[in-house]
């Protein structure tokens, strides 16, 4: 719902008038101090004069990336925007992004959003925290995930279990046109279930279905409430026109579901301590929550000062599900879309798999270094159809210099990852899907430093290794087993829909089984 729609349908004329007058007065007051504050400093310029009250906010609604690129051409790599009185700075281009995200990383935190305030999780977990707490939570989370990926590689095993179900479910369509979105997202969420809570669910399980609906419902509503980040007064409007209370209810239901798993695993750790039965081989034991508690207990036993606790753990689980399901799922879907557009690329990938792996077994992680064309096609999907093109925002803690401009403390910075992934000078023809750009003349895989779909610096995506493994195992099995064919004469569009991440528009595909694949 638009602001105007929400205001007019929920307020009587007098309240509306008072709201407008008070809002305007506050804005003018803010604006005059804002102009004074910035006029004396070397801050990045505006590309265009901001509108009263909302600044540039509503100039960015429909195709934000395209608009940001137009402004970049006019103003340069680094420019300012005004979001309802809040100073924002947009940073483009590989060198400026590196300066910001790698060299100046210590002077950056995350800004608090309305949603974080609603959840009460600003400063908790990984995504929304910074400083010492972020460091402790991130370091432990990463080391748990790394340990799962080492030796017998529990993560690869868990993904492979899910891949088998995924492939069998796809085969059930028997080449009929199907919308695979739910299947893809369910499979990817199930990988996270296995890793985080230690159990997977059957597709169609009512409890899992409820969890997925909650998560999707929550994610779908977040974009609608983002206006509240900038117009704080609107939070107090009667009638909940932006559904903030619905969001709060959904979030607390999700949290209490997760708390049940947290309690279960805490009890398991306490039980195993009492009975001394913590067997290394127990696959049931291998889950993120259990390992987190085990480490918490160990630090407490050593009387270390630790911030490991249930509030941080619950925030981390939210972070992992929030950041880890849509992202990988949408990348799988974009890959399928690009394959539909390019039957000839499908045949190259299939021939490579047939040559390296054969058709008697599914590809595994040992095959990955030898399936370079497939790896290049996955990278090209992530470059061209990046699901997080605007990156994650930063809050500047103390003044920094980028490209000769001063970005003052308190500013929110938007790092535009797409500006590196689609840079014409780097890629030549950035708008074309051309996997061979990632291959050297001898067929080996290139890793250009400008390829940053997972961002870079100390805040680089925590799930990068997991996501790469998922993408490889799901997509190699998919390309080995099926040829993808379009449903109708018109090929589905490869452009995305803006939300929390970029997702493909709904499409149908025929999954045609190749001969002789298990
Ligand atoms: C194709 C899949 C994925 C892509 C493209 C992706 C991309 C990103 C990007 C661009 C960021 C922002 C980094 C920054 O702030 O500069 C990020 C952060 C993060 N991602 Fe991912 N991600 C993916 C999958 C995953 C998965 C599978 C997980 C975990 C299960 C995950 C967990 C996280 C977390 C926890 C952060 C916050 C890191 C921090 O603030 O320290 N991501 N991701």
TrEMBL record:
The chain crosses the membrane at residues 12-31. The keyword Heme applies. InterPro entries: Cyt_P450, Cyt_P450_CS, Cyt_P450_E_grp-I, Cyt_P450_sf, Cytochrome_P450_fam2. Keywords: Heme, Iron, Membrane, Metal-binding, Monooxygenase, Oxidoreductase, Transmembrane, Transmembrane helix. PANTHER family: CYTOCHROME P450 306A1 (PTHR24300:SF403), CYTOCHROME P450 508A4-RELATED (PTHR24300). Belongs to the cytochrome P450 family. This is Cytochrome P450 2C15. The gene is LOC101850309.
